UniProtKB/TrEMBL annotation, chain B:
Protein's gene: cysC
Protein name per the record: Adenylyl-sulfate kinase
Domain Tr-type G: 16-227
Source organism per UniProt: Gluconobacter aidae
Function summary: Catalyzes the synthesis of activated sulfate. Proposed to provide activated sulfate for transfer to Nod factor. ATP sulfurylase may be the GTPase, regulating ATP sulfurylase activity.
Catalytic activity: sulfate + ATP + H(+) = adenosine 5'-phosphosulfate + diphosphate; adenosine 5'-phosphosulfate + ATP = 3'-phosphoadenylyl sulfate + ADP + H(+)
Length: 286, 626
């Protein structure tokens, strides 16, 4: 077994006492996510993990390696809009090798094929939904792990950890299964799959604190250059950087501790109309 | 001494996890408004969100509606109700909370449970003027069954009672009495107005007589979760992996601690193994792990436990879990149809799955006054105490509020969660009662449909003797076989020739005949078969019972041939015999026939027989073809 070097954390000083560590908030989030990933791996086959190359999905790949002793025992999927930043493609190629990932690539149809009634940025974002749907159908995935969080956006706050998608990949928000005591429903009918959300309870700041604690690599775009940085990464043409001087993980955390604007403020589609995000999600957007 | 060092080193770096608080209560008693106000008063709103609320309220021509913050789904705003729970983080001083907003609308009970189940404390919002309502009682009952330990009551809209002490004390006493009956300890009862902000974050000027805490003070007083570290060790096996030639037994520790060198018993079989290593990836190396951690163990000997096997201390009898094949449970029932004795489910208990049957419904909760009554079924969204029988001994720890023990969940054959069943303890078998342990098929319904190529169903044909039930049933059976659909016909005379040859035609025997036919039909349908039953089944009550036995898959078909026609046909000469008095209690002549009031299909006699056959075949095809 290949062992990655052990972290030097102050908790390690308790070793000689042979008492369990007192779990802090990140330990608890981590333990819960590992539990969820292990449930998905056991219950849903075939399974894959959506790797958007953003900070959340990197944390998710990291948590999968935690759950499976350094391995990711299912494919990771990158649904490429072909409009991502060049830095993201370079990152993908580097860490596919370093993390020994089984990478599946999917492509998105041109925007002309997407519902013209959607506002322009949302229509562009919906390409990804179509690309994802094609991948799920092609590989007949029963489970797809996605890195959405409740605190990102109001409709995501309504999500389940195991979220069934009916035929046509639709999300039936009015008729979601009960989910409690860490028991996840896994109904199955032809054409159906389950979206698994191991990061649902994490907040943006938790993600950053975990990245800092674990030393998880990120695309440089998250760090300030010339007074601007990206807080959330989408396609080049529909994502805008925010004003910031934070050029390290620690500075980003300090900035978020005092920030009062929403993470997706730089995402154009969120501001086009009141219900656009919900419309996208019902149709299968993340 | 050593412990002190640990505590000190943590005081600087340790951040406790957020405390989840659930807000529940009757519809329109002001839950969402309370949350909006709480976030505003504690300055927890993001800049964008306040602007969004103001804008949304303005668009609808309303004053600022705090509830818009939460009811952020378009459909919710249009209907004015919260359809699903939402979580919102907020902070009081140095402590993080997560507010869970649970909907008050009755049919959305399952969403409320989803939100509330891992809360540490609950705020029960009660309209001071209206007092406790149906959903107040329902939610209070749920708080008890899902194990919420701390309950704060907010008497909202107290301004409608002018914050009058006498009136408020009266409402308070009613609510305390209600919660007392549920053995719920109330932390505080706060007279408040969410809309105006009285006693939410700041003390009300209008209720100077009130000396208790404001809501924010009461929340800050909620103690942190009880430690599970000192309890005997439990880890349900989640999975077993083999990576790089090493076998890992993976799971999350429910309680207690485990150390390298510990001897553990594995599941009901009780094989014993020693922990060689407590494994984690990319974490400080520690030979010990405690409650809440997701870890992997290496065992010696290198056994392969099953998922669901409970790991517990091997050498301490007092630290062993309960073991019983019959278990008393409380129940909150989430399926759209009532629960009845004899139904089979999978009982999920942490990662374990056990086949269980409902052996008895011991008491049903009356939601009017929260008393326990006798009952033979549990209604949708109802509460009860029931006994479950498993086919083998189940290891468990009784349910205890605030802990993970005994959290049973019932799952049906479609892998849907249909109820929560906190386990109370082993059930004694009554004197003279013989324990039966029915088993249920493990074949998933979806696979059954796949292998058979069609769904199952029971089509129950009722009608007078001679109405043509058996003829139509047999012809439909043949027509279905041409479409590659397997159907079985259970007709009256065939059953009476064998299975029911001990029965006559008295009302009791007819009843028994129908009961047996219904059970056979049920067994066949559960194996994926299409079943056509052709039985006179003259009484509405008997057909209702058959429907209950069969369950959701029952379709009533009325072969509506008038008496004169049947008597004219009289293919078996029975009418003639009955008229001459040779057959007593003959349906239509000397015994009643109660025609179905609203059958799902009616086969009219004024049409040619072939048309009835085609109609029935088409009806069945429509329901069973995938």
């Amino acid at each position: 077994m290949t062992q990655t070097p052990i972290l030097s954390r102050d908790q390690a000083t308790t070793t000689s006492l042979a008492q369990p560590r007192i779990m802090d908030d990140l330990d608890q989030l981590e333990a819960q996510s590992i539990f969820i990933l292990r449930e998905a791996y056991r219950k849903l086959k075939p399974l894959s993990l959506l790797w958007s190359l953003g900070k959340d999905s990197n944390v998710m790949v990291w948590l999968a390696r935690k759950a499976f002793m350094g391995h990711v025992p299912f494919p990771v999927m990158h649904v490429d809009t072909e409009k991502k930043f060049p830095e993201m493609y370079a990152f993908r190629d580097e860490y596919t090798k370093k993390w020994n990932l089984d990478l599946l690539l999917g492509y998105c149809p041109p925007v002309e094929e997407i519902d013209p009634s959607l506002p322009p940025a949302a229509r562009s974002a919906a390409r990804k939904t179509a690309g994802l749907a094609a991948m799920i159908d092609k590989h007949r995935f029963r489970g797809v792990i996605a890195g959405i969080r409740r605190d990102e956006q109001a409709t995501r706050a309504k999500e389940r950890v195991f979220s069934p998608r009916g035929a046509g990949h639709r999300w039936d928000v009015r008729n979601q299964p009960p989910e409690f005591w860490d028991q996840y429903a896994t109904p199955y009918e032809d054409g159906m799959h389950i979206r698994v959300h191991p990061l649902l309870s994490w907040r943006e700041i938790d993600i950053w604190r975990y990245i800092e604690r674990e030393g998880i690599p990120l695309v440089d775009l998250y760090f300030a250059k010339d007074g601007k940085r990206y807080r959330s990464l989408g396609d080049q043409d529909i994502t805008n950087p925010v004003e910031s001087t934070a050029s390290t993980v620690a500075e980003v955390i300090a900035e978020l501790e005092t920030s009062r604007t929403s993470e997706r403020a730089g995402r154009a589609m969120d501001h086009e109309s009141e219900d656009v995000f919900e419309r996208l999600r019902v149709a299968g957007y993340l | 001494m050593g412990d002190n060092i640990v505590t000190e080193s943590f005081s600087e770096t340790h951040r406790a996890a957020a405390t989840p608080i659930v807000i529940v209560g009757h519809v329109d008693h002001g839950k969402s408004s309370l949350i909006g106000r709480l976030l505003y008063d504690t300055d927890s709103l993001q800049d964008g969100k306040l602007a969004q609320i103001v804008e949304s309220s303005r668009k609808r021509g309303l004053a600022v509606e705090w509830s818009f913050l939460l009811d952020s789904l378009q459909i919710e705003r249009d209907q004015g109700v919260t359809v699903d729970s939402t979580r919102i983080p907020f902070r009081l001083g140095s402590r993080d909370f997560v507010i869970v907003d649970a909907p008050g609308h009755r049919q959305f009970l399952r969403n409320m449970i989803t939100g509330a189940a891992d809360a540490e404390a609950a705020v029960l919002v009660v309209d001071a003027k209206e007092g406790a309502q149906e959903q107040t009682r329902r939610h209070a009952m749920l708080l008890r069954l899902i194990g919420i330990r701390h309950v704060i009551v907010l008497l909202n809209k107290s301004d409608l009672l002018e914050f009058d002490e006498a009136k408020i004390v009266r409402v308070e006493s009613d609510v305390r009495q209600l919660l007392g009956r549920l053995e719920i300890e109330v932390e505080a009862v706060v007279p408040a107005s969410a809309r105006d902000g009285d006693n939410i974050a700041s003390r009300s000027e209008r209720a100077l007589w009130y000396k208790g805490p404001t809501l924010v003070e009461a929340l800050a007083n909620v103690p942190p979760p009880a430690s599970r570290a000192a309890l005997p060790f439990r880890m349900p096996v989640q999975d077993v992996y083999r990576f790089d030639g090493v076998r890992y037994v993976a799971g999350r520790i429910e309680r207690g601690t485990v150390r390298a060198g510990d001897r553990l018993a594995i599941g009901a079989q009780g094989q014993v193994a020693t922990v060689v290593e407590v494994c984690r990836w990319h974490a400080p190396e520690l030979p010990v792990a405690g409650a809440g951690e997701s870890i992997a163990l290496r065992l010696e000997p290198d056994l392969v436990p099953d998922r669901g096997d409970l790991l517990f201390p091997a050498d301490d009898k007092a630290a062993a879990p309960e073991r019983s094949a019959r278990i008393r449970t409380r129940l909150f029932w989430l399926r759209g149809e009532p629960l009845r004795v004899g139904e089979s489910f999978t009982l999920r208990l942490a990662t374990a799955e056990h086949d269980v049957t409902v052996a008895s419904i011991d008491a049903v909760v009356d939601l009017e006054d929260l008393t326990l009554r006798e009952g033979d079924s549990v209604p949708p969204d109802g509460f009860a105490e029931i006994t479950l029988a498993a086919s083998h001994a189940v290891l468990f720890d009784p349910f205890s509020p605030g802990f993970g023990d005994g959290r049973g969940v019932l799952v049906d054959r479609y892998q849907r969660i249909v109820g929560g069943a906190p386990l109370i303890g082993p059930a004694e078998l009554a004197d003279g009662e013989h324990a039966i342990h029915p088993t249920a098929s493990r074949v998933p319904a979806a696979r059954q449909v796949q292998t058979r190529g069609h769904r199952s169903g029971v089509f129950w044909l009722t009608g007078l003797p001679g109405s043509g039930k058996s003829t139509v049933a047999r012809a439909a059976e043949l027509a279905l076989s041409e479409q590659a659909i397997n159907a079985t016909v259970l007709d009256g005379d065939t059953l009476r020739a064998g299975l029911c040859s001990d029965l006559g035609f008295s009302p009791e025997d007819r009843h028994e005949n129908i009961r047996r036919a219904a059970h056979v039909a049920k067994i066949l349908a559960e194996s994926g078969q299409v079943v056509i039953v052709a039985l006179v089944s003259p009484l509405e009550a008997d057909r209702t019972q058959a429907r209950q036995i069969v369950g959701g898959n029952f379709h009533e078909v009325f072969v509506d041939t008038p008496l004169e026609t049947c008597e004219k046909r009289d293919p078996k000469g029975l009418y003639a015999a009955a008229r001459s008095g040779k057959i007593p209690e003959f349906t239509g002549v000397s015994a009643p026939y109660e025609a179905p009031v609203s059958p799902e299909l009616r086969l009219a006699a004024d049409r040619p027989e072939q048309e009835a056959i085609n109609t029935l075949t088409a009806f069945i095809l429509r329901l069973v073809q995938p």
